[in-house]
Amino acid sequence: MTDVPINKRADPNDIRDRGLSETPEERASYLRAGHTLRSWFLTTDHKRIALLYLVSVTFFFFVGGIAAALIRIDLLTPEGDLLSNEGYNRAFTLHGVIMVWFFLIPSIPNTFGNFLIPLMIGAKDLAFPRLNLLSWYIYVIGGLCTLFVLVAGGVDTGWTFYTPLSSMFAHGQVVMAATAVFIVGFSSILTGLNFIVTIHKLRCPGMTWGRLPLFVWSHYATSLILVLATPVLSITLALIAAERLFGVGVFDPKLGGDPLLYQHLFWFYSHPAVYIMVLPGLGVVSELVTAAARKRVFGYWFVAGSSLAIAAVGFLVWGHHMFVAGQSMYASAVFSFLSLVVAVPSAVKVYNWTATLYKGQIAIDPPFLFAASFIGLFVFGGLTGLVLAMLAVDMHVHDTYFVIAHFHYIMVGGTVSAYFGALHFWWPKMFGRTYPMVWGRIMALLIYLGFNLTFFPQFILGYLGMPRRYHVYPPEWQVWNVLSSTGASILGIAYLLPFVYLLWSLRYGPPASANPWGAAGLEWTVPSPPPKENFVETPVVDYPAYNYPMEMEEGARG
Amino acid sequence: MSALPFWPHEASAYSAEIDHLALAFTVLIVLLSAPVFVLMIIFAVKYRRGRTADRRHPVNSRIGFEISWAVIPFAAMLVFYVWSTRLYFQQHHPPGNALEIQVVAKQWMWKFQHPGGQREINELHVPIGRPILLTLASQDVIHDLYVPALRLKQDVVPGRYTSLWFDADTVGVYRLQCSQFCGADHAVMGGYVHLLSPSDYARWLEQAGTDMSLASQGAALFRTRGCSGCHGAAATVKAPKLEGLFGHEVPLSDGSVVTADAQYIRDSILMPHAQVAAGYPDIMPTFQNVLAEDDVLKLVAYIKSLAAEPRSKP
Fold first, then answer.
1. pLDDT tens-digit series, residues A71-114
2. B133: helix, coil or strand?
3. Which contacts (CB < 8 Å, 24+ apart) does range B88-94 have?
4. Which of A201, A330, A491, B269 is spaced 20 to 30 Å from A154 by Cα?
5. Are the CB atoms for A389 and A332 separated by under 8 Å?
6. Residues 207-236 of chain B whose Cβ lies under 8 A from any Cβ of chain A
7. Which run of H or of E encompasses B201?
8. Domains of chain B (ranges plus CATH)?
9. CA distance to partner chain B, nearest, from residue A465 (Å)
């Protein structure tokens, strides 16, 4: 933040600096390249589609958040007083379905991936711009189906849709909910396909694989999972619908089916899906850490390769969701071992980020604070995942609040922190305006504190034996639940804050320069906000990624 | 609100060992993550932008570092892997002398049947000081029997028998819960395990006593449901005789061989066409919608009691 007086308010006497007025960059940018609704809803510009996603995933984040609020309010007391048993089941099912498929999975790839991948690799757009728009429409149709489920009475199977409960016993809108997820799956597949082809074919001259930003590497790994795993989920959901509607016996033992077959199929998708949710966040943090430290990433190939390793090994650990489900103990032993293996590349990333900070030029700005809280929460979430990978311990804490706490550390502590980190880092690039740093810092700290207060008590509740999906619990567990709900309200306020200062910045924020953070990367070479065609001239790259000036010891090589 | 609970009760030597494992593993986690937290803070302070510091550094990647911080934590994990997998395997090998109790889960209650025929709902009375083997069956969806004080849970899956065993050593009343989401009243599908001294257990059995043992109840069903019409001693239909069957190998009409365990008996009653004994016509009707899982468990107990009888030739 050296070259722009970022905390200076817009000068009311300067005609060019009225906040409301347009800068020359803005006038030429993608934001002003058409003002009609049609120019937005039929756009094929990856940057505009990214903004369409930004608005829609934010909407679903708050719908899912309202469900979470209902859950936490109900859990304030040991009795089920706010919601009935059925109402509570519907609340956590919608919370899970919406947060997983309509927020976490599309969040970073479809907004920031969409916006940044072409800019980072020196391309004018994604390989298939119309397909990109189509995948947004598919997402919206899936989202409308979910909202239909919501108003038509909800669904009470849990986001996992376990059979035969979902296929033969549950009363709610199971088929409609499955349809919604089925539809949104195609949006994921198309986006993943688009990214893979784009990264292969549209890199600018000199942008070799070894010079790709790590954000692009992690999105490449994510896309592979999106394309390979999502079809399995689609088939599985179709089988549920077939059993429920037509009595085709696949999962219900009374019809000759096998309920555990469902779990194998579901987790074969849903465990890799965890990496769909977290890999883009890992990519974001690599960018944030290097930019904050103004230093090349330590061990580029190890960080890039670990994304691919996570994507590959992530396909081989699904059985760790079934240690108490009745699968063979030998299978469990293998899955337990592989679950330890998959932790290694994540550890490699974390240690490399830490080493990147060593002797850096660290700016304590919002992006760094988000990255640091990501690392802290991700480490803790990952290591508690290893507790769950231990077979005998899992027999105790499986399906308890320990599991809830663990995966919220990864998905909310990790992915949502990375999402807000990305929003704060690339906001000046996306909209050409800067926001007050101090508010960004306050938000990062509030999220970190609120998050830990919400979810740390849940580890203790889990070890004490509180099963997940319980809203009636023994009175002695109330203190921990009250602490957790208190943290959730802090978290809720923290999530609302950016609405105020980021929206404020759109109008009154000082204009951002092309490179307000002094960061490396092609996206910082174009004006903020970027012009419609991204690059006036196709860039040529003849330097490595994160080409920051280095102070080397004598005889050392980069 | 009562005093802040930090740790659940330990009702067996096994639960104490799980706690040791979990605590030792927590120490390892702290050791592995502490450097990250501490170094991040130190670096953020020491190398804050604008602050003078020696920023000359050697190289931007070191194979030695990379390999050591990948391999050393993994090796430490493997120690715990062996420890926990050994406990898990032990948990899958119930001792032969265990007291067997049949459990049926259904939306939303637990039903327990003792060998002596005593039945109870949502309450389980068992003695300490001897292994208890629970055979779990579900009438409808997947449930999960979870007793935190024993650090044990097991899914109860429709269509198959699963099992859980423990050897408790501390008398008391402990919570049991369903921990696999099973529909509307999942959160209230719980009850209590009463761990009793052997003498208290004997007293309980007596006051809860029934006229007939589980096997005798099965024998009664065997007659009233018409099983004996074909499988009985006087039957004229060509059906496999069940004396001496349990635990032995049965050749099937498709050429394979299965062991006649509880699962096989259950499947033969509910899905008789799936596994037909070699040399017999495939004529047995299904009892799928006739017998509930607890009745099937009684029949299994009865057929098991016939194991000791001399095997009659068909």
1. 999 999 999 889 999 999 999 999 999 999 999 999 999 999 99
2. strand
3. B88/A323, B88/A329, B88/A332, B88/A333, B88/A391, B88/A392, B88/A395, B89/A329, B89/A333, B91/A392, B91/A395, B91/B14, B91/B152, B91/B165, B92/A329, B94/B131, B94/B133, B94/B163, B94/B165
4. A491
5. no
6. none
7. helix B198-207
8. 13-91 (no CATH), 99-207 (2.60.40.420), 214-308 (1.10.760.10)
9. 5
Local structure of B108: helix, strand or coil: coil
Q: CA-CA distance, B47 to A104, in Å (whole number)?
A: 34
A294-340 pLDDT, tens digit each: 999 999 999 999 999 999 999 999 999 999 999 999 999 999 999 99
Of A17-26, A265-274, B160-169, the range with the lowest mean pLDDT is A17-26
Residue of A nearest to B52 (CA): A361
Residue with tokens 């004598």: A554
Nearest CA in chain A to B33: A379
Q: pLDDT by residue (tens digit) across A489-501?
A: 999 999 999 999 9
Q: Under 8 Å CB-to-CB from A109, ≥6 apart: which residues? A: A191, A192, A195, A219, A222, A223, A226, A276, A280
Chain A touched by B157 (CB under 8 Å): yes
A343 contacts on B by Cβ (under 8 Å): 74, 77
For residue A330, the distance in angstroms to the closest alpha carbon of chain B comes to 9
Give the separation between CA A52 and CA A33, rounded to whole angstroms: 15
Phi, psi of A27 (to 5 degrees): -60, -35
Q: Which of B8, B141, B185 sits opposite A85 (nearest CB)?
A: B185
Whether B123 has its CB under 8 Å from any CB of chain A: the answer is: no
Q: Is the pLDDT confidence value at A482 over 80?
A: yes
CB nearest to A324's CB, from B21, B47, B155:
B155
Strand partners for B143: B156
In percent, how much of chain A has pLDDT > 90? 88
Locate A515 and state its tokens.
Answer: 């490179």
Nearest chain A CA: its distance from B311 CA (Å)? 32
The residue-averaged pLDDT of B238-245 equals 87
Asked if residues B73 and A347 have their Cβ atoms less than 8 Å apart, the reply is yes
B159 vs A258: CB contact, 8 Å cut-off?
A: yes
Token representation of residue A375: 């690392």
**pLDDT tens digits, B271-286:** 898 889 988 988 898 8
The residue in chain B having the minimum alpha-carbon distance to the alpha carbon of residue A374 is B37
Domain A45-524 sits in CATH at 1.20.210.10
B178 touches chain A (CB under 8 A): yes
What is the model's pLDDT at position B239?
A: 87
CB contacts of B135 in chain A (<8 Å) are none
User: What sign does the dihedral A359-A360-A366-A367 (CA atoms) show?
Assistant: negative
Sort out which chain B residues have CB atoms less than 8 A from A244's CB and list them: none
Task: For chain A, say whether B33 makes contact (Cβ under 8 Å).
Answer: yes
Closest CA to B189 of B197, B201, B179: B179
Give the pairing of strands B119-121 and B109-113.
antiparallel
B91 in contact with chain A, both atoms CB, cutoff 8 A: yes
Bridge partners, B104 (sequence order): B111, B137
- Can you give the C-alpha Rg of chain B in angstroms? 27
B56 touches chain A (CB under 8 A): yes
Which residue, A285, A295, A283, A291, is CA-closest to A355? A295
Would you call A379 and B175 a contact, using CB atoms and an 8 Å cutoff? no
